[in-house]
Design a protein that fits this description.
363 residues; alpha+beta; 9-stranded antiparallel beta sheet; 3-stranded antiparallel beta sheet; 17% strand
């Protein structure tokens, strides 16, 4: 099948997927393979009165965790951090006090950097965990749109309202709280805000000129398009200052082309060594067929359920954002549906793309 027909089929599938899901107001999708000569960047829907554009910036949600984990690994290669370091080496006693109290025992000083990266600390997740009392965070950020949250305030809220799940290293529980701590550790280590650390180590060296940390910094250049609208149900969240609850685990704003730059550099070991990337692959079961490492997600083959061709690695977010690499096809797949809990739709579209490209690659 000629490349132009492959791209036409992918585009048809993308536009049909978005059209069949009225809750998705705008979506972005980039498919790229140097080996197969494929490069297709698409957008569908609207932001306000403007049609969606492939060059538009959008919130990448938990894909940000991959950036944070790579930055952490870069600091480890510089001998500034170590996976075995306890968080108490970098964070003050007041913040740690009562952070991880489980069944009457205090484990806060036993949490290590590797536990935060791999969600094995046992800490709560301020986004998804049910609070002991009061409203959950997802309701708070909708009900109080003008509230600005500092990373420390989010951690303190988590301490007051949520319960840990197990001692450090004794299980897996996804924790945005843990990635807040990683951001604070990076700031303490470098003596600068997290957004400046991202600029210094990742955005500027890679030429990601449209990428920034939402509500913390501005990109090097204006893309010329409005920030893509993001929704929780019918609630448009784009201008809510309460999205400041996002930080090291979810606050990066980028474009599809900038995300491709980052992922290609990571896959080609231009950011961290092959050995360091392998060191991030300490896998825990996340969901059926999905493992989580240090900021990394992988899909693994399951007979009759997930064919080998779906074996990809990268990360994804709760707003339908995704960033993955399929090594056998040298295929990058990334984008966002900008609607909370639309991840399944996005991933099914990604797998359909792999089916289409796989048939092309075998010819």
């Amino acid at each position: 099948m000629p490349v132009h027909k492959v791209q036409s089929r992918i585009e048809e599938k993308f536009r049909k997927t978005v059209g069949d899901n009225p809750s998705v107001r705008n979506a972005y999708y980039l498919v790229h393979s140097d080996r197969l000569g494929i490069h297709l960047s698409m957008a569908e829907g609207r932001t306000g009165g403007s049609p969606a554009n492939p060059g538009q910036r959008y919130l990448i949600a938990s894909i940000s965790k991959l950036f944070t984990s790579v930055l952490t690994s870069m600091l480890i290669e510089e001998n500034r951090l170590d996976y075995e370091d306890t968080v108490a080496k970098y964070l003050d006693a007041d913040l740690l006090k009562g952070l991880h109290r489980y069944k009457g025992n205090e484990y806060s000083n036993e949490i290590r950097i590797k536990h935060l990266l791999g969600h094995t600390s046992g800490l709560h997740d301020f986004f998804e965990d049910k609070p002991k009392q009061g409203k959950p965070m997802l309701e708070l950020i909708q009900d109080e749109p003008d509230r600005l949250w500092t990373p420390r305030e989010v951690v303190e809220w988590s301490k007051a309202h949520l319960e840990p799940h197990f001692p450090p290293g004794a299980g897996f529980h996804y924790s945005d709280t843990g990635y807040h701590l990683l951001g604070l550790i990076i700031e303490q280590t470098l003596g600068k805000p997290l957004h400046e650390a991202f600029d210094q180590y990742l955005f500027r060296p890679l030429g990601m000129k449209y990428t920034s940390l939402h509500l913390y910094s501005e990109p090097e250049e204006d893309s010329g398009y409005p920030l893509a609208d993001v929704y929780i149900g019918d609630n448009r969240m784009t201008d809510h200052q309460s999205l400041s609850v996002d930080y090291a685990g979810g606050a990066i704003v980028s474009t599809s082309e900038d995300l491709l730059i980052f992922m290609k550099a990571l896959a080609k070991h231009e950011l961290i060594s092959k050995q360091r990337l392998e060191a991030m692959q300490v896998w825990s079961k996340f969901q059926v067929g999905i493992d989580y490492g240090y900021g990394l997600v992988r899909f693994k083959p399951i007979p009759l359920l997930l064919p080998k061709r779906y074996q990809v690695w990268g990360n994804f977010g709760s707003t339908g954002s995704f960033l993955f690499y399929q090594a056998e096809l040298d295929l990058y797949l990334l984008g966002s549906f900008n609607q909370l809990r639309s991840t399944g739709k996005a991933l099914r579209m990604m797998f359909k793309t792999i089916d289409i490209v796989s048939r092309h690659g075998k010819r």
